[in-house]
Design brief:
Helix content: 55-70%
Largest sheet: 3 strands, antiparallel
Shape: globular
Structural class: mainly alpha
Length: 777
């Protein structure tokens, strides 16, 4: 693969604006090439005239072999020197500038433009890299202080005798050096010593002291003079924050401080170690990406300068690349040393010295594509298509659509199986989202906060959806076959229990505790659902409100779940009949079920308003309140509560739809910006075809208004049952949500790119009295 294609593929997508603009520089090189080609003809004419002059010189006097030797040597050295690179101090920052030593008639102007742009890109890259390096150095300082507290806590919890000895020494005023053996140079991120007092620790201290810069001989002797004990005084200056967020802790935070005193329990130590492990992993990944950023940009500079040398037949790459290497050397060595020290610290303190296991945890695992997944997708989709054709043939062959039991089947059995149809369609749309997110390099796994290496790709989601489709369609065929077969009268009860068996099977798989069928993703989904149901008692993250929006598009699926409970709990499923809609309790729950997803989103907006103080969440909350009113009015009209409900449902639905459509397009998608570089879209677009965005805007608006068919009574169709029409409208809403998902995450990704947010914010367990501690990004 050519470097021009490999370079963007290996970028940290959130930092892509900070990389060298390789394609732009290649364009400038093409300009240089075109300039040289245009002037080639004129150069040839000049050469012919010069040849005539050379013929004349054959008849001139001979001037000797050595008279012009020194001058020719000097001119040759001057000609070889194409550029001069130097650093210029501009304010508080250092800028690198290149002087081009080429005459204008030899292509000096386009080549000077190339080096001006090259300098601009290099200064941008270097500034960003040094700023990020400064950030990781500060984070290393913070992690050092956190490790001081962790080691002291380990001693206090696991070695109470050692802790009491130190306290006794302190009370007697013994002048012992109780430092943990941490190096003073933060950039080296020293491996903090373990709590055991052993000769091995003394040897490690000797090694550390040899590398420390700026230590006096007295300090070196103090560091190596005898066994060291970690200082427990640090525990008097820290508070702990390791409680998992629950509704109880949220209430406690409202009425009291969120930080608590140390209790020195083993459970507290375990939670601290888990948080520190996550912080080290995230910090290590940041260092790895910084190192990759440095390497890729230096490689890009090398490639583009070699292209320049090849086009111009000059030798300008060597001095410029030496300058690039020297400018990056200090920061690169800083990052490399930090990587080594983080590895050593993590292996020693979080993997019991097992280097292989420690590096396996630290370094992200690339997800391997498995051929069995691809094969299974094809197999299940083939089975799904075959079963779907079989269902159609069975319905047509037995004239089920015109049978006496059609109405009974549509009222009782169709809602049970339509639940699986809604779920399968949503999964298919989600797999399409993942495919296009990957295609356009949207970092969806980081945005959602998936654990690296466990996120499901589009193939895995398709596998789950196709497998569920096979189960559901097989259930439909078995139900129809047992129901319609004359000799199957004894199996009538079993046929009615098929949908219940399917839903139980799906729930068992979802809550299966064993590490099968994508356990990490299943538990992540269950956790997000639980946090949504407990809103606003949990801090709202993007996966929480993103899932809340998905639930608003699955109202009919939730109503199908309610029907399951009613049909098998209080209905007469043996006779395929129910009186659910004759029950006042069912109708009340029918309304509540439809309102719950929008109410969850409203409560999430309230929580975000309290925490972020952003008034935009007020408007978003009002949007969901208007939708709640519209849903109640529309449901009242569906349940025929009175003639006035139709007018109220029409008005409220129209208002809510217009507000939601505007919010989708302008706020969630960030489109319709009249002053943008792409008129009526936004400045940055991932999809190269602008028409796609305009089509999505129109489709979103049309599908938003599709739900209003229930208000205007488009149910009357001789060939289409009311339940089927409701299912079709629900499917259209799921498709609309799938389209919304792509552009919503695209906008979120671009916001992260604009703010260079490529890492999660990891909470740290200890908060120092001096204000250090709390969060590590």
């Amino acid at each position: 693969m050519k470097f021009g294609k490999e370079f963007p593929a290996q970028m940290v997508q959130e930092w892509q604006e900070a990389y060298i603009k390789y394609d732009d520089l290649k364009t400038l090189l093409k300009d240089i090439l075109n300039y040289r080609q245009v002037n080639l003809l004129s150069s040839a004419k000049q050469a012919s005239r010069a040849s005539f002059k050379r013929n004349v010189t054959l008849y001139r006097a001979f001037s000797g072999l050595t008279s012009g030797y020194n001058r020719s040597r000097d001119s040759t050295s001057t000609e070889d020197e194409v550029i001069v690179v130097g650093a210029v101090q501009e304010g508080s920052s250092e800028q690198y500038q290149t002087m081009v030593l080429i005459a204008l008639d030899e292509g000096g102007e386009p080549e000077a433009a190339f080096f001006r742009r090259l300098d601009k890109e290099f200064n941008k890259v270097l500034k960003f890299y040094r700023a990020k390096t400064g950030e990781v150095v500060k984070e290393a300082q913070e992690l050092n202080k956190q490790m001081d507290a962790l080691i002291a806590l380990r001693v206090k919890v696991d070695k109470p005798l050692l802790a009491s000895m130190q306290a006794d020494f302190n009370n007697r005023g013994a002048s012992l050096n109780l430092s943990i053996g941490r190096r003073k140079t933060v950039s080296h991120m020293d491996d903090i010593q373990e709590d055991e007092v052993s000769q091995e620790e003394n040897e490690e201290d000797d090694e550390v002291s040899q590398h420390d810069e700026g230590k006096t001989s007295e300090q070196a002797e103090a560091d190596t003079a005898g066994p060291k004990m970690p200082s427990l005084e640090v525990l008097e200056r820290v508070k702990i924050n390791v409680e998992a967020e629950t509704p109880v802790t949220t209430l406690r935070r409202i009425f009291a401080s969120s930080q608590s005193e140390l209790s020195f329990s083993k459970e507290e130590l375990r939670k601290v170690e888990e948080q520190m492990k996550r912080a080290f992993i995230e910090f290590y990944n940041k260092l790895r990406l910084l190192k990759s950023y440095s390497f890729l940009n230096q490689m890009a500079f090398s490639k583009i300068l070699k292209k320049y040398d090849k086009i111009t037949s000059r030798n300008a790459s060597k001095p410029y690349l030496e300058m690039v290497e020297n400018a990056f050397s200090d920061s690169s060595s800083e990052v490399s040393r930090l990587l080594e020290r983080v590895e050593a610290t993590f292996i020693k303190h979080f993997s019991n010295g097992n280097r292989k296991r420690g590096l396996k945890i630290l370094r992200p695992h690339s997800k391997k594509e498995r051929h069995v997944v691809t094969f299974s997708i094809g197999f299940f989709f083939g089975c799904s298509i075959a079963l779907l054709v079989a269902v159609i043939v069975l319905v047509h062959a037995r004239n089920i659509m015109n049978s006496d039991g059609r109405q009974q089947y549509m009222e009782n059995i169709f809602p049970l199986y339509s639940l699986f149809g809604f779920i399968v369609l949503h999964l298919i749309m989600y797999s399409a989202n993942i495919y296009f997110w990957r295609h356009f390099r949207v970092n969806y796994s980081f945005i959602f906060g998936f654990k690296q290496g466990t996120e499901m790709g589009y193939r895995e989601v398709l596998l789950v959806s196709s497998g569920l489709a096979v189960l559901a369609l097989a259930g439909v065929i078995s139900n129809l076959d047992m129901d319609m077969e004359p000799r199957a009268g004894s199996f009538h009860t079993l046929a009615e229990l098929v949908p219940l068996g399917l839903i139980i099977l799906v729930l068992l798989i979802a809550f299966c505790p064993f590490n099968i069928i994508y356990r990490s993703s299943r538990f992540f989904l269950i956790q997000c659902i639980f946090r949504c149901l407990c809103a606003p008692w949990y801090k709202v993250t993007l996966p929480d409100f993103f899932l809340g929006d998905q639930l608003t598009s699955q109202v009919q699926a939730l109503r199908c779940l309610e029907f399951y409970v009613c049909y098998y709990g209080w209905g007469d499923f043996k006779r395929r009949s129910n009186q659910c809609h004759q029950s006042d309790v069912f109708e009340v729950i029918y309304v509540i079920i439809a309102v719950v997803p929008y109410w969850i989103r409203f409560l999430q907006c309230v929580r975000r308003l309290v925490e972020e103080k952003d008034r935009m969440h007020i408007t978003n909350g009002v949007k969901y309140l208007s939708t709640i009113i519209a849903v109640v009015m529309r449901t009242g009209h569906d349940l025929k509560w009175g003639g006035g409900w139709k007018i109220m449902a029409a008005i409220s639905s129209a208002v809510a739809t217009m507000i939601s459509t505007y919010w989708d397009i302008v706020i969630d998608w960030g489109l319709l910006r009249k002053d943008s570089r792409n008129p009526w879209l936004r400045d940055k677009l991932l999809v190269p075809y602008k028409s796609v965005y305009f089509i999505a805007i129109v489709v979103n608006g049309v599908l938003r208004f599709a739900w209003m068919q229930s208000v205007f009574g488009f149910y009357e169709a001789p060939f289409l049952h009311k339940k089927a029409l409701t299912a079709i409208v629900a499917c259209l809403e799921i498709i609309r949500r799938g389209i919304w998902n792509f552009f919503r995450l695209e906008n979120e990704h671009l916001n992260n790119v604009g703010k260079y947010r490529a890492f999660k914010s990891v909470p740290l367990p200890f908060s120092y009295d001096d204000g250090v501690g709390g969060k590590h990004a």
